[in-house]
Design a protein that fits this description.
Radius of gyration: 36 Å
Bound molecules: zinc ion
Largest sheet: 2 strands, antiparallel
Strand order of the largest sheet: 1-2
Distance between the termini: 102 Å
Shape: elongated
Length: about 180
């Protein structure tokens, strides 16, 4: 293949091929069928740029899209990132959603050790602090046992009686007269 180092020329008019162009800028002939097929049309001026260009050969408009996920660029004519396969359609929303999910999980991880424990023993923590002067930072094994039983018992009794009186009121009014 000795023509590799000869500078390529337009197959129609013989002008030297301009790098970045898919079509000859003089006669508008495609340099090759492959070049034409992979050419990237400019959204602004319509010029076709050769595959691999990132800006329009004529007006320098961007003709590539940067992937929000992997930061690689792909021609705007393809439907998804050539590097990682993420579809460009709705990419911004998906990226935002994923970011939100990531930061949510990060929050869960940092809170993880404390969150569930803190939540279920919230009442007893308050009680324990009141009871013994707030020294419990260093011995939180204690208030898990102490507190839980105490506060849960009280809560259970209270709830029961309220519920009974509500259902009483309900049954009496039910028979009362709505259906007569
Ligand atoms: Zn030409
Ligand atoms: Zn252009
Ligand atoms: Zn990507």
């Amino acid at each position: 293949m000795s023509d590799a180092h000869e500078s390529p020329t337009c197959p129609r008019c013989g002008a030297p091929q301009k790098p970045g162009y898919a079509l000859c800028p003089f006669c508008r002939a495609a340099y090759s069928e492959q070049a034409a097929r992979h050419a990237i049309p400019c959204k602004k001026c319509g010029e076709l740029s050769a595959w691999g260009q990132s800006r329009c050969v004529r007006c320098r408009e961007w003709i590539v899209v940067q992937c929000l996920f992997c930061n690689n660029v792909s021609p705007h004519t393809v439907s998804g990132c050539l590097a990682c396969g993420e579809a460009f359609q709705g990419m911004q929303a998906r990226k935002a959603a994923r970011d939100a999910e990531v930061s949510r999980q990060r929050t869960l991880q940092t809170v993880g050790a404390w969150g569930p424990v803190g939540a279920s023993f919230l009442g007893s923590v308050a009680g324990a602090y009141l009871g013994s002067g707030g020294h419990h930072h260093h011995e939180h094994h204690d208030w898990q046992d102490d507190g839980a039983t105490g506060s849960y018992d009280a809560g259970g009794d209270d709830g029961g009686s309220v519920f009974e009186s509500v259902s009483d009121a309900f049954s009496s009014s039910d028979g009362g007269g709505w259906f007569d």
